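Memo to structure team: turn this sequence into structure tokens by end of day. - J.P.
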Amino acid sequence: MKKAILTLTAMLVFLTAWSQTDEMTRQQADKLDSLTIKLVNQERYEDAIKAKDRELTILKALYGEKDSTYIKELAVSAKLYYRNRQPEEAVNKIEKAAQLWAENVSNSDDQYAFYLDNLSLYQISIQEYEKAKENCRKALTIYEKLGRNDYDLAVILMHMAESSHYSGQTQDALIYELRSLNIIKDIYGKHSDEYIGELPYLQKYYQAVGDEKNVKRIEETIERLQKEIEDGIVDLPEPVKFESAEMCKEHNGDAMKCIRYYLTHKLNAPQMDQAAQYILSWSEASNDVNIVIGEEIGSLATSEKTMPYLIAYMASYDYYCLTENMKELDEKHFMYAIDILLQFYEPNRGLTGKVELLEHYLQLQKEGKLEEELSKQTTTSK
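Reply from structure team:
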């Protein structure tokens, strides 16, 4: 820890030295950028602002104000001022960045929309609500034309809702906030921190229009979702009938959610059947995996008692195929998959009863002979 502090102190000394010289290079600018990040991580925003200002001076001298790199760092400077509780200066910086970007790069891309959105956020903080709403409206118009239904759109909608609310148009705020929440729910799920954390804003807007019924409903929803989280409920995709490999690829992320859930919960967890159905359906139709099931592992399919462990094997096989970009596991990753299967088996055998094959594997693992046994299986399967 002392070494890190000394290094940072030394860099701040260099910052003072640079400010006293006329020499300006891109290497110096990059070092200042790295220094800024370190200072921000320590929440030393005053020093971070000084480092960023010096970096901007160098970039301006090297490339001019019209350069995209200079403009992007100017926008970063605005964020630093905002975090340092200097919102007026943040407004000035981001307003200039937005103007330079529109004039020299693009007035219709996502970056310009983000700058306008940031401007609206900073304007809200200094109670310039009408200006904030107008800039947010411009950002929303630009971003909607890009056809993306992502979290960035949700954030713009949040700010549009907030600026509308403070401009006395809370009915409009409700519309924007509901749109934002629907996007967040689709991306992260209704049990996510992002979704639950945004619900109080919706509640506030209902309160502002005197809709006590919905105020109460949102309060109950938050309490219910938090209780469900405590009970182990997560947001898993509903089982899908996959009609093509292309369709499977589009749902690789959803498959991974189910894989992770299945392998990290006990068999009596509330959504294990849902996860298992998804894994089976996706694994059968996907071209991204080719699960090899040898005779020994195949024996797990012979009874209701052992079938959950075959699914666990498939899930662990899928996991390594997706994370390692492998269609079929090599010997090393096959052994990893079996290890995950055994980690899944041990806490669950009290629910299903002991499985002879897996007990045998555990004994071999204890004796240090499991890899040799598994190596025979991979050789035989080829």
